Amino acid sequence: MFSFFHWLGRRLGPHHRALLAALWVLVQLVYLRKFHGPHFANDSGRYLAYATGIAERFYFEPGHNLRYVLYPLFQSLWLRLGLGWWGIVAGQMAVSALATRAVYQGTRRLAAGKRGAAALATFLFIAWPDIQPFNVFLLTESLFISLVALSFGAFTRLRAGGPRRWLVFFMLLLLTALARPNGFLVALAAALAGLDALRRAPDRRPWRAALLGLVLLAPLLWAALNHQLATYYLMDTYQRGELIFRSQLWAVHQAAPLIMPPPGTGPAMRVLYFAVHNPLYLSRLMLGKLFVFVSYLKPHYSLAHRVLGVLVLWPAYWLAARAARRRGPVWRPARVFLAAIFLLQTAIIMLTVDDWDVRFLAPVLPVAFVLAALELELRFGNRLSS
After folding, report:
1. 317 by DSSP, 3-state: which?
2. If pLDDT is split at 50, 70 and 90, which confidence band does 9 have?
3. Strand partners, 354
């Protein structure tokens, strides 16, 4: 079997980029046909209403919706141009095309120019059934997925240095942070990669300076965390034992009355108070959310969906973990950056709650695909890239 794929790779290798581009176009057309054009989904109404306010009055709605401000702003551009929903979807597809290119180029840089890992990671990014469909949805997910991928591509360019590359990367981090409330995780992952690089540097003074800076910034970071959590009602989901938002499927039930934080406690402190006073219950809750998030076995998924997850995602997770820990030719800061994105998103879901679909997993799946493809490249070497 491997010999067949090896032969196929040799025959198609010189044309792989054209084939990937054709596949990307075909996939977009398939989903446009499936959803009959731009797809209005559950939260589309509030984003479009916000975008209309920006386009017509340049009014930015305060409160919870401000945490998604980039997407209504993106939508407002197309509404102001008079292109409507089709313009929004076309814009999302254009950004997705750039993101697909970033996945390919970024992976190839990390693989020392070898095309096998880049082609595989890009193929999975295009063909996985829960990533590209968001391009036709009037939701934040398409833009967020693309920005995560673009940030990855920009990060791999930092190795060559240059102020322009750093400027582009920081701009992408800012845009990603504005796309969704958890968008800050990409910047945090980059910071962790930077801290790891400083820790391993021969000169320890920058490492100590960075630690001092974190101590001095702690009050500001705490205030930012409270601001992000202010419009979420985590205690309600904890009390209901929800593993999936507004669903009692697989819910965790407490064996004893829960000890709740007193009124007036700040958002972040409420979580800490609950954790200290209900450690076993919260542990069960977090482990359940971890399983629901990464397993791809949610109770309402079809059998085909579950089988696909077990056959593809589970091995990909294992390969990605191996790649992240492997000491080898893959640039270490990139490995830390990629692993941190996935782990931080997982930690956020464990502390909050997962959704019924894949909207929280899809943005970080490209990370797992890139690392898994790199591990396969390291294991099979020339056979994968020849």
Report:
1. helix
2. low
3. 244
Q: Give CB contacts under 8 A, 24+ apart, made by 54-58.
A: 55/79, 55/80
- The whole-angstrom separation of Cα 200 and Cα 254 is 45
> Looking at residue 380, what is its pLDDT?
80
Q: What are phi and psi of 247, to 5 degrees?
A: -140, 135
Please classify residue 24 by burial: count the beta carbons closer than 10 Å to its beta carbon, then call 0-12 exposed, 13-18 middle and 19+ buried.
buried
Q: pLDDT (tens digit, 9 = 90+) per residue, 267-324? A: 899 999 999 999 999 999 999 999 999 999 988 888 998 999 999 999 999 999 999 9
**In this structure, what is the dihedral angle of CA atoms 210, 211, 212, 217, given to the nearest 10 degrees?**
90
**Apex CA 79: angle with CA 362 and CA 88, to 5°?**
25
Beta carbons of 286 and 267 less than 8 angstroms apart: no
pLDDT band at 12 (very low <50, low <70, confident <90, very high): low
Determine the pLDDT at residue 350.
94
SS3 category, 242: coil
Cα separation, 17 vs 108, whole angstroms: 12
Whether the predicted pLDDT of 8 surpasses 80: no
Q: How far is CA 285 from CA 43, 89, 258, 314, in A?
A: 26, 37, 13, 22
| pTM for this predicted structure | 0.93
Candidates 353, 378, 296; CA nearest to 120 is: 378
Report CA-CA distances (Å) from 369 to 97, 178, 324, 343, 366. 17, 25, 12, 14, 5
